[in-house]
C-alpha cells in the first residue's frame, strides 16, 4: 500500500476533461496553481504595506494570558468531559451506539 | 492612461506594482526608488503621509512583527505537554471500523453528520450526494448533480443541505442550498437554490447557528457571509494572500468568530460582524488544509501539507503544541476533535488516520483501512462515532466498545456455549 506522488502542478493547456477524474489533483492545484501568482508579491505595493502595518498594530494590542494558565484550562475542560466522550470510554459491547441514551450510565 | 515619454535608464519590475516596465528613477525623501510612470502618477494623487515611504513602512512592519513575537514569547512560560504530565496516560483505545458504506462510484470528497446524530451526507466526484443512515447503512436520499466537482457539503441545523458545486474549470463557483424532505419522490435537484458566488472555486462552507446564514471560503482568498433566503452578501473577509481552504465556526451559541486556514500558511481568526481579522497565526510550513475549533472554543487545531497538525490557543495567542512524527511524511488533509477534546483525529494522504493525544502531544493510535487518501474525518455531534470519507469511494464509521463490558459479554457467551455443550453430551449419552 505505497501511496504515489502527492501533488503535481499541471500547466493550463494540459487541462482536459480527463484531469477531473485523475487521482491526484485537488482544485487548489488546478484552478489556481501557485506558479501563476501575479499579486502574491504584493508586499511591495504601498497601500498593501500600509494595511499590513495597521493589521500588525491591531494584532499587537490583543490581550494575552500566560500559556500555563491557558493550558491548565484546556486540560480541565478535557478531564471534565472525558466521562461523556464515547470515543474515549467506549459504548457497551454489542450495543448500537446511535440508540444509546445520553445518560452517564457508562461505567 | 498612456505612458509619458521620458528617458528610461532602467527597465524592470516597478517597486510599487511589480509590473515590468520602463522605470523612472525618482527620489522620495532622499531615497532612490524606481517606479513605473503609472505608479508615479498614482503616488502623486495618493498623498503620502509625512515621511512615509515604502522603505519606512517595510521597516515599521518588520519591527512590529518582531515586537509581536516578543510579546507572545514573554508569556510562553511552559509547554502544554509539561502541564499535562500529571494527567493519566490514555488506556489503549479500542476504536475500530464497524461499518463500511459503499455506494459511491468515485472519490468521496466530503462528508458531514446530521444533527440527529445518526445520518450522514457525503458528496463524491461521480456527481452524487447521498444521505446515509450510519447504523443500518440504508441510503435515504440520492441527489444526482450536473457537475463533478462537488467539493463539500454540510448539514444545516434545521435539516437542509448545503452543497458546493464547482463546475468544470471553475466556471460555476456556486454554493447551493437544498431543503431536504422525507418525501423520497421529490426531485431534490430541482429545488436547489444558489446562494453564494465567488470569483474562484469555493473550498468550504458552513451554516452559522441558524439556517439563515452561510459562511463560505474561496480560492480567491476571501471568506464571505451570505443570507440564505435572498442570496445577498452580508460581509466579506479579506486578509489571506492565497486560497482559503477551510473554515470553522466557534462552537458557542453566542460566538461570532470563525477561523480560516489557507495556502498562505496562515490561520486567521475573524469577527463575523465587523469583518475584522482579530488574530493571525503563521507557523505552518505549507498549506493549511483544515482548521477545527476545540470544543470549548478557546483553541483550534490545523492540519497541513507539511505533515504536522498544530494546536493554537486563542487566549495565549500562540501555538501550544505540534503533532508530528518522523515517520509521518504525508500531508494531513483533515482533522477533528473528539467530544471532550482529548483526542484529535487527523486524516493523512498516506491512507491512515492518526489519533493524537491533544494534551500530551503523543500519538494514541492509528486507524487503518482506507485504500486511498482520507479526504474528511468528522466526529458525530454527540461524540459517539467517527465518520471518515476517502478517495477509495467508501466511507467508514468507527466507534469504540468499552473493554470492561467485553469480559461480561464474553462470559455470557461462554455460559451459553457450555450449556449447549452439556445438553449435547446428555442427548448423545442417551
TrEMBL record, chain A:
G protein gamma domain segment(s): 42-107
Key words of the record: Cell membrane, Lipoprotein, Membrane, Methylation, Prenylation, Transducer
InterPro entries (alphabetical): G-protein_gamma (IPR001770), G-protein_gamma-like_dom (IPR015898), GGL_sf (IPR036284)
GO molecular function, a single term: G-protein beta-subunit binding
This protein's record includes keyword Chloroplast: no
A GO-annotated cellular component: heterotrimeric G-protein complex
Membrane topology: Lipid-anchor
PROSITE patterns, per database record: G_PROTEIN_GAMMA
GO terms (BP aspect): G protein-coupled receptor signaling pathway
Alphabetized Pfam families for the sequence: G-gamma
UniProt keyword Membrane present: yes
Localisation: Cell membrane
Family, as annotated: Belongs to the G protein gamma family.
PANTHER family, alphabetized: GUANINE NUCLEOTIDE-BINDING PROTEIN GAMMA SUBUNIT
Quaternary structure (record): G proteins are composed of 3 units; alpha, beta and gamma.
Described purpose of this protein according to its UniProt entry: Guanine nucleotide-binding proteins (G proteins) are involved as a modulator or transducer in various transmembrane signaling systems. The beta and gamma chains are required for the GTPase activity, for replacement of GDP by GTP, and for G protein-effector interaction.
The protein's name: Guanine nucleotide-binding protein subunit gamma
Gene: GNG10
TrEMBL record, chain B:
Organism of origin: Oreochromis niloticus (Nile tilapia)
The protein's name in its UniProt record: Guanine nucleotide binding protein (G protein), beta 5b
The keyword Repeat is annotated on this UniProt entry: yes
SUPFAM superfamilies found in the cross-reference section: WD40 repeat-like
Any single GO BP term: signal transduction
Domain of life: Eukaryota
Xref: InterPro entries: G-protein_beta_1-5 (IPR016346), WD40/YVTN_repeat-like_dom_sf (IPR015943), WD40_G-protein_beta-like (IPR001632), WD40_PAC1 (IPR020472), WD40_repeat_CS (IPR019775), WD40_repeat_dom_sf (IPR036322), WD40_rpt (IPR001680)
Coiled-coil residue windows: 51-81
Similarity field: Belongs to the WD repeat G protein beta family.
PROSITE patterns: WD_REPEATS_1, WD_REPEATS_2, WD_REPEATS_REGION
Keywords of this entry: Coiled coil, Repeat, Transducer, WD repeat
Swiss-Prot/TrEMBL WD repeat ranges: 101-133, 195-236, 237-280, 281-322, 367-397
Amino acid at each position: 500500500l505505497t501511496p504515489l506522488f502527492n501533488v503535481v502542478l499541471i500547466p493550463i493547456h494540459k487541462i482536459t476533461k480527463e484531469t477531473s477524474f485523475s487521482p491526484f489533483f485537488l482544485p487548489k492545484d488546478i484552478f489556481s496553481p501557485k506558479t501563476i501568482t501575479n499579486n502574491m508579491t504584493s508586499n511591495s505595493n504601498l497601500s498593501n504595506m500600509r494595511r499590513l502595518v495597521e493589521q500588525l498594530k491591531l494584532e499587537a494590542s490583543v490581550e494575552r494570558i500566560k500559556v500555563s494558565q491557558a493550558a491548565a484550562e484546556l486540560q480541565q475542560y478535557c478531564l471534565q468531559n472525558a466521562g461523556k466522550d464515547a470515543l474515549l470510554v467506549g459504548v457497551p459491547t454489542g450495543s448500537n451506539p446511535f440508540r444509546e441514551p445520553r445518560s452517564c450510565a457508562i461505567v | 492612461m498612456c505612458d509619458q515619454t521620458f528617458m528610461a535608464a532602467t527597465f524592470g519590475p516597478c517597486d510599487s506594482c511589480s509590473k515590468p516596465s520602463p522605470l523612472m528613477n525618482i527620489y522620495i525623501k532622499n531615497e532612490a526608488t524606481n517606479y513605473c510612470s503609472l505608479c508615479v502618477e498614482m503616488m502623486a494623487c495618493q498623498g503620502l503621509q509625512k515621511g512615509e515611504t515604502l522603505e519606512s513602512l517595510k521597516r515599521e512592519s518588520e519591527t512590529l512583527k518582531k515586537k509581536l513575537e516578543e510579546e507572545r514569547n514573554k508569556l510562553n512560560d511552559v509547554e502544554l505537554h509539561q502541564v499535562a504530565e500529571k494527567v493519566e496516560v490514555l488506556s489503549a483505545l479500542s476504536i475500530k471500523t464497524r461499518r463500511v458504506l459503499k455506494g459511491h462510484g468515485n472519490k468521496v470528497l466530503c462528508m458531514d453528520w446530521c444533527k440527529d446524530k445518526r445520518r450522514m451526507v457525503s458528496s463524491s466526484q461521480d456527481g452524487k450526494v447521498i444521505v446515509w443512515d450510519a447504523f443500518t447503512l440504508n441510503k435515504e436520499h440520492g441527489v444526482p448533480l450536473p457537475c463533478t466537482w462537488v467539493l463539500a457539503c454540510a448539514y444545516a441545523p434545521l435539516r437542509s443541505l448545503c452543497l458546493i458545486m464547482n463546475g468544470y474549470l471553475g466556471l460555476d463557483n456556486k454554493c447551493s442550498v437544498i431543503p431536504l424532505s422525507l418525501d423520497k419522490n421529490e426531485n431534490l435537484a430541482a429545488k436547489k437554490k444558489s446562494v453564494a458566488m465567488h470569483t474562484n472555486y469555493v473550498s468550504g462552507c458552513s451554516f452559522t447557528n441558524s439556517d439563515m446564514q452561510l459562511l463560505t471560503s474561496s480560492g480567491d482568498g476571501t471568506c464571505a457571509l451570505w443570507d440564505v433566503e435572498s442570496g445577498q452578501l452580508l460581509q466579506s473577509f479579506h486578509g489571506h494572500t492565497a486560497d482559503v481552504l477551510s473554515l470553522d465556526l466557534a462552537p458557542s451559541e453566542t460566538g461570532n468568530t470563525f477561523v480560516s486556514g489557507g495556502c498562505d500558511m496562515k490561520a486567521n481568526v475573524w469577527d463575523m460582524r465587523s469583518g475584522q481579522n482579530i488574530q493571525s497565526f503563521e507557523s505552518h510550513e505549507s498549506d493549511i488544509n483544515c482548521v477545527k475549533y476545540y470544543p470549548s472554543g478557546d483553541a483550534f487545531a490545523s492540519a497541513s501539507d507539511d505533515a504536522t497538525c498544530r494546536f493554537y490557543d486563542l487566549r495565549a495567542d500562540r501555538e501550544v503544541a505540534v503533532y508530528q512524527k518522523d515517520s509521518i511524511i504525508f500531508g494531513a488533509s483533515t482533522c477533528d476533535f473528539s467530544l471532550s477534546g482529548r483526542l484529535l483525529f487527523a486524516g493523512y494522504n498516506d491512507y491512515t488516520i492518526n489519533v493524537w493525544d491533544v494534551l500530551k502531544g503523543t500519538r494514541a493510535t492509528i486507524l487503518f483501512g482506507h485504500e486511498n487518501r482520507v479526504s474528511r474525518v468528522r466526529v458525530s455531534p454527540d461524540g459517539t462515532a467517527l465518520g471518515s470519507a476517502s478517495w477509495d469511494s467508501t466511507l467508514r464509521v468507527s466507534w469504540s466498545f468499552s473493554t470492561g463490558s467485553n469480559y461480561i459479554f464474553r462470559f455470557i457467551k461462554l455460559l451459553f456455549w457450555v450449556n449447549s455443550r452439556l445438553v449435547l453430551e446428555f442427548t448423545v449419552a442417551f
